[in-house]
UniProtKB/TrEMBL annotation:
The chain crosses the membrane at residues 40-60. Keywords: Membrane, Transmembrane, Transmembrane helix. Residues 70-120 form the LysM domain. The lineage of its organism: Bacteria, Bacillati, Bacillota, Bacilli, Bacillales. InterPro entries: LysM (IPR018392), LysM_dom_sf (IPR036779). This is Peptidoglycan-binding protein LysM. It comes from the Bacteria. The keyword Membrane applies. Signal peptide: none annotated.
Length: 122
């Protein structure tokens, strides 16, 4: 069939088809960026918070063996009471307890009467 009388009911407007295609591509890019951007932002925030937490844990000051005071644990004393009474004024008690645990090599947090503890100086 060399010649045909068939004529499509749809107009063959190539420019209009190209505009539709460009709009679909733009819509796809918007959809991807709208769904991916918040997820990426949340991932970055979570990673930042986790990194800050790790840095906080390891930020406790190191204690040298030369800067210590020895203390004999009295009956009824707890590590918390000892740390509260001997820590620097603005230091968190938990950080000071961690220093006591490190410098004395304590495996558990309990102390016994008569035990000699080294108290760090910060």
């Amino acid at each position: 069939m060399k010649y045909s009388t068939y004529q499509s009911i749809f107009p063959m407007n190539l420019e209009k088809m190209q505009n539709v295609r460009n709009e679909r591509e733009a819509q796809l890019v918007r959809t991807i960026s709208n769904s991916l951007l918040p997820k990426l932002l949340i991932l970055v925030i979570v990673a930042w918070i986790a990194g800050a937490g790790v840095l906080t844990v390891f930020a406790a000051p190191s204690v040298s063996n030369e800067e210590v005071t020895k203390l004999i644990v009295q009956p009824g004393d707890t590590l918390w009471q000892i740390a509260s009474n001997h820590k620097p004024e603005r230091m968190d008690t938990r950080v000071y307890i961690e220093g006591i645990v490190r410098i004395n090599g304590l495996e558990d947090r309990g102390v016994q009467a008569g035990q000699v503890l080294k108290l760090p100086h910060f």
